[in-house]
Design brief:
0% strand; mainly alpha; 308 residues
Length: 308
Amino acid sequence: MMNDAFALPFSQIGVMVLLALAGFVMKKRGLLPESAPKSLSQVLVNAFMPALIIDNLSSNITLAVIQTKWRIVLYSILLLAASIVSSRLAAKAMTKDISLRPMIAYYLAFPNFSYIGYPLVTALFGSAVLSDYILFSMAFSVCVYTYGRRMITNVRVPVSRALFSPTVLAIASGLALGLLGIEIPGFVSSALTSAARCVSPVSMLLIGYILASCNIRIAFNRLVATVVLMRLVAIPVTVVGLAYLLGLRGEMLAILALFLAMPLPLNPIIFQESDGENSHITACVCCVSYLFALVTLPVMLYIVMALF
């Protein structure tokens, strides 16, 4: 198991790097049109991501789960509130550039808890712990696709339109199906699961395509390094250490540590491309975080395995 703590992160990140490399090569060889980023992001936002949300919420959020595991939900909500407030304060202290603060705050508040987190938790601890991990991440998932998206894009969608966006409708549908105990027909469930599995590979193809058009050296600076190290080292060590001192142990502590140790999220790239904004710098910064994570994530997983 300890060896898995070092091997699995390399395996998962390696898969994502290969997919990004495929997107990079397709851009360089002219195998995809210039409209590819816009088209891929639209498919992600309007089809694959809603499928992922409905699939997860309907399967994992039930009245029985809420009644027996309400503490997991409570811890998640408390962490989310603290993350939003502290990330905004940190972003304000880190730069005087007002235009950069929302993105920095987003990166500090939201790790990539799903695309890498779900496979790692499943491989290390099994489906039972994965269910608790998904439950813990639900408050963050809802926030990412609502408040989080408004943080990082310049497009201001009217509230009435935002309420009927595919993402919000998916959240409402998934919660309703789960809490009301409505069983999804087998073929529909299979279709949702298949579409949900497309989110990570299509996202990485998109990132690779974008990276082929930009100079990654622009992401190697002190501010980016600070944000990445805070996300990968300072935040998980501080929060997990505090939780340990307060008496948190076992599975809940392991879930918290894994959740916070993940690299920067891919959502900003998808949201920006979907809204017609330039995501080159965002893609470069994400790439840097994954390079750092090759070192930090195995170490954190080793610690998690020792605690678990």
